[in-house]
Amino acid sequence: MKSRLIVNPVSGTDSAPDYLQAMNERLREGVGELDIVLTVGAGDAMRLAERAAREGYERLFVAGGDGTLNEVLNGVAAVEGALARTTFGLIPLGTGNDFASALGLPEDVEQAVEMLLRGRTVEADVGVLNGRHFVNVSAGGFIAEVSDAVNPQLKSVAGKLAYLIGGAQVLMEYEPVGVRSRCVAEDGRVFTRDLSAQMFAVCNSRMVGGGRLIAPHAVIDDGLFDVCFVEAMPTLEFVGLLGAVSGGDHIEDERVAYFRARSLDLSFDRRIKINTDGEVLEADECRYRLLPRAACFLAGDAPFAQESKQ
After folding, report:
1. Residues 247, 148: Cα–Cα separation, whole Å
2. What is the C-alpha end-to-end distance of the chain, expressed in Å?
3. How far from chain centre, in Å, is Cα 91?
4. What is the model's pTM?
5. Is 138 helix (H, G, I), strand (E, B) or coil?
């Protein structure tokens, strides 16, 4: 099986170069032949992954965070049939590493590599937003504005504290957005709703922003999105609600709508930022669809997925 390691040297706190030799040696011991490529700018991971898929690579290790993984996923998905024949191994070198947590991988890089080499796999659902694939969370409103504020320089300096700093910058200026939603629910029924939203998240996995439990009941291979809408409210009340997100207690609040969906269509009263696995896009409409168990990942204990039958 042809293997490639794609390394983002500026993920998280720019620590990837410190681990490069150890990753190279241990992965070669475990999988045999391996080539290594480094990204040098935005979009490089996507282009390198697409090229690898066209050249017949079946196993891609990704040393980076959720954003790097998102680029690699979309690069592979751009090649017909490649997503079904590729196994991904995520080495958590990002700021948040939220999807790595869903896969049961520790933050310690060397321990994570050892787990990947055990060969246990899970098949994860893949979300699609307006043609772009994602595996963790796609969110709009306050969450996406924070993601946009947390630039690579801030991540390098502050690590996970970057999300708190970015949140403080956004909090006083953000204006809620008007949303019209159409949801196909778990049982196939269709629901529509209009609301003014402080933020929303369409989730395949449980966490966002470096460990915030935005979707406490999400499972990455159940064929459903977990959706969370937070209605508009005064700033001080919203600050209090944000404190409950860390433990997932926010879903008990009457101003929060939490439900599962097969698909979701959203339209907004203005063009807004949308965070998709850490990559920030802009849209005035969002069409969310799900590809059940469409991507294979090497995993640790994977507490939020079932073991692959492959």
Report:
1. 24
2. 15
3. 14
4. 0.90
5. strand
The most confident of the ranges 73-82, 165-174, 272-281 is 73-82
Predicted pLDDT at 256: 96
Rounded CA-CA distance 2/157 in Å is: 36
∠ Cα 288 263 251 (to 5°): 95
β-bridge pairing 35-38 and 3-7: parallel
Q: Is the pLDDT of residue 119 over 60?
A: yes
Tell me how far apart the alpha carbons of residues 264 and 253 are, in angstroms, rounded to a whole number: 22
Nearest one of 76, 81, 215, 41 to 89, comparing CA atoms: 76
Cα gap 238→133, rounded to integer Å: 30
Residue partners of 297: CB distance under 8 A and separation at least 6: 87, 88, 89, 90, 103, 121, 122, 123, 124
Beta strand 59-64 with 35-38 is unpaired
Q: Which residues pair with 75 in a beta bridge?
A: none
Residues catalogued as catalytic? 279
The structural domains of the chain, ordered by start, are 3-119 (3.40.50.10330), 134-290 (2.60.200.40)
